[in-house]
Amino acid sequence: MVGRKPRFSEEEKLSMLARMHNGENVSRLADELGIHRQRLYAWREQLRTCGNLTPARQGRPKKNSDLIVPLLLRP
């Protein structure tokens, strides 16, 4: 797994989870897909808790300048 990480659509992820659910070996499935097996378990957990596989907001949260300015102006 050298290089850029693959991106999968929600349909592709559901297909992979269906294969996992049907008893396919998780390690072999992960190797075939070029991902770590823990990623499959994380997707399964996300599906159970959130009900979908759409990624959460990516990246660092934006800074709230309204909170920063008063802190900088303190004596």
In short:
With 75 residues, the chain is mostly helical. The chain has helices at residues 10-21, 26-33, 37-50, 65-72.
Please give a structural write-up.
- This protein has 75 residues and is mainly α.
- It has four helices and no strands.
Q: How many strands, what sense, and barrel or not for the largest sheet?
A: none
Alpha carbon gyration radius: 19 Å
DSSP helical segment count: 4
Percent range of helical residues: 55-70%
Ordered list of secondary-structure elements with their pairings:
Layout: H1 10-21, H2 26-33, H3 37-50, H4 65-72
Descriptive key words:
75 residues, elongated, 4 helices
